Structures are given as structure tokens and as C-alpha cells.
Amino acid sequence: MFPAVSMAESRPRVWVSQPLFDDIVGRLAAHFDVRSTGEVTEHSPQAIADALRECAGALITLNERIGAREIAAAASLRAIANVGVGYNNLDVAALTQAGIVATNTPDVLTETTADFGFALLMATARRVTEAERWLREGQWQQWSFSTLLGADLHGSTLGIVGMGRIGQGIARRARGFDMRVLYHNRSRLPDAVEQECGARYAGFDEVFAQADHVVLVLPYSPQVHHLVDAAALAKMKPTATLVNIARGGIVDEIALADALANGRLAAAGLDVYEGEPAVRPELLALRNVVLTPHIASASLATRRAMVSLAVDNLIAALGEGPDAGNPPTPVNPDVLAAATIKTITAKRQGA
Ligand code: GLV
């Protein structure tokens, strides 16, 4: 007699690395044996490798870095669904080489993130959080004409570095503020898109020199590490502001703190940090920087939509559900054809 095998044991196992929305993640249970993480956890590389070892797939967040080391012992791993549009936490080359499909969550967060980019820009230029802190500290003894003077957005020049979907969303918002928009991007956008966004393509140096406000929205890669360094900051007007909603590693934070402390830049708004969740004491000590904890996409509806898309991706990438074999938003689509064959073979073998 064979020992009885439960449904759960016979199904592919997936790992969910952080608590997300239970009602959405619960959809995975219709197809897989789900191993969830009950509390927000900082997983070590070894813990990630251990969690992935027996899994066919994983639903992860940008807190989990997954590269060759984490997947080395994960012989059955076929899909990683990242809850996030940026995926610099994934070594896509290593995943691709191992035949593992990677997916992300673009589009569903575009407008929410553009909203936040604009909110951070306004808070930075008009010194909103600095003013609130000042008031709460009891420093408002008398109304004065020259208290906390900031910079205008309307009529100013906005520089956008990284003109993907979110950058374009910020440009469209800027039109409503009568801003002149310059953008820099790996490639120039089609004329029709430039016109719709009311944006003009310019070189990186020109954007930095001309803009009254610069917003960074480009994806992180080693090629853009510390793209905004002391030299780039030195090109900016001393009255200008810099906003980063991309990734921390794009800005040399020491050089930024130095420019802010020494009056070479008026203010900065940062939602992302090189060593997050740690924030450099040099930045924490400054009044002219607005600091938020990586929340640009954090509206309830959008965070739910991101998890839902990631769940759809994982189900489909593992050959289940209505889109079996066709996850909506793959990062390495080249793997898909090969992965589909692998999935079908694995299913036939009852894996
Ligand atoms: C957030 O930073 C994301 O990439 O979705």
C-alpha cells in the first residue's frame, strides 16, 4: 500500500516572502501548496535560499534579493513574481540562465506613483514638512512675511530623468502647473508622446543645469549607480530642488547631503535610499530634505492591484489558471517558451 498523499502535498509549492493581502494571496491556494510568511521579516540570503529550495515559485517583494546564490539549490524553481515595478533586487541574468521566469508589476502603479512624485516635489519646493516640524516645535511665535519662503512650481522648469510611464505621468501633471518640462531618457520618445506630455528631450547636463526642479524616475542598474554625484549636483542652480522616487543608489547621498548643507542646492525630497531602511545621519540632520519611507506606490488600491497582478503572474508562469504559460508582465519573456515546455513536462511527471 502507498501512503495516502494529500492534495496539498501533491501540488507545487510556492513561497510568499512577506505578509501581503490575505484575500488576494489566498487565490494561490487554489493551485499550490502555499508557504506564507506571517510577519514582516528581513530574510537573510540563506533563509531565502532555504525557502526557495523546495519551491516551484515565489511571490516576493523588493526586500528580497534573489541571485545565483539564492537559487543555487532551488532545483524545482520555475517562477519568481516580484511585487514591484523595479526589479533590481533580482539578478535577471542568473534567473534567465536557470530558466526561471521573472515578472514585475508595471502599469498598475503608474498614476499613483506619479501622484506621489508630484506630492514630494510640492512638499520639497514649498517646505511643507519643514514648516510642520517648525510649528510643532513651538517656533511659530508670530506670523512673519518672510517665514519659510519656498520655490514656485508654476511657471518653473521641471527636469525629468527617466521618461517611462511614471515619468510621463509626472510630465502630464506638470502641464497643469504651467511648467516647462525637459526630460532625459535612454532614448528619445516619439514626437506624439513628447507632445502629449508637453516635454522636450534634452541632454543630462542640460536638464540639470536648466531645471528648477529635477525628478528622478529612472530604473536602477549598475550603469546609473551614483549618476547624480557631486559633479551633477554642481551643475544645478543653487535654488533648485531634487526629488528621487527611483532607487537610492542613483544618488550619491553624501554628495547630496553636502550640497544641501552648504547652500549649493535648496532642497531635496527622497523616497528611496541606498541602504534603506537605514537613512544616513547626514540626511536626517538636515532640515531642507523631505524624507519618506519608500511609499510612492502606497495607496491601498494600488498596493492591492500590485499584489493581484503578481499573483496572476505567478499562477500563469507556473502553468495554471486562464493565462497558463502567459504571465501578463514577464521581465524575461525569452524564458517563457522554454519554461512552458518545462512546466508541461513537470506537470506530466506529476511534480
Ligand atoms: C517600488 O519601488 C517599485 O519598484 O514598485
Helix content: 25-40%
* Secondary-structure class: alpha/beta
Describe the main β-sheet briefly: 7 strands, parallel
- The H-level CATH homologous superfamily of the largest domain, spelled out, is NAD(P)-binding Rossmann-like Domain
Count the beta strands: 12
What CATH calls the topology of the largest domain is: Rossmann fold
Total of DSSP H or I helical runs spanning 4+ residues: 15
Spell out the helices and strands N to C. HEHEHEHEHEHHEHEHEHEHEHEHEHH
Low-confidence segments: 1-5
How do the strands of the widest beta sheet line up side by side? 8-7-6-9-10-11-12
CA radius of gyration is 23 Å
- Averaging pLDDT over every residue, what do you get? 94
For the record, the CATH architecture of the largest domain stands as 3-Layer(aba) Sandwich
CATH class value of the largest domain = Alpha Beta
Beta-strand content bin? 5-15%
Distance between the termini: 21 Å
Task: Describe the structure concisely for a colleague.
This protein has 351 residues and is of the alpha/beta class. It is 37% helix and 14% strand. It is built from 15 helices and twelve strands.
Description of the molecule:
The chain has 351 residues and is of the alpha/beta class. The chain folds into two domains: 7-107 and 300-350, Rossmann fold (3-Layer(aba) Sandwich), CATH 3.40.50; 110-291, 3-Layer(aba) Sandwich (Rossmann fold), CATH 3.40.50.720. It is 37% helix and 14% strand. It contains 15 helices and twelve strands. It has helices spanning 7-10, 22-25, 45-53, 68-71, 92-97, 110-125, 128-136, 165-175, 191-197, 204-210, 230-235, 253-261, 281-284, 300-317, 334-348; strands at 13-16, 33-36, 57-61, 79-83, 101-103, 157-161, 180-184, 199-201, 213-216, 241-244, 267-270, 289-291. Strands 8-7-6-9-10-11-12 form a seven-stranded parallel beta sheet, with helices on both faces. A five-stranded parallel beta sheet has the order 2-1-3-4-5. The longest helix is centred in the C-terminal third of the chain and has 18 residues, at 300-317. The chain is elongated, with a radius of gyration of 23 Å. The model is unreliable at 1-5 (pLDDT under 50). Glyoxylic acid binds next to loops.
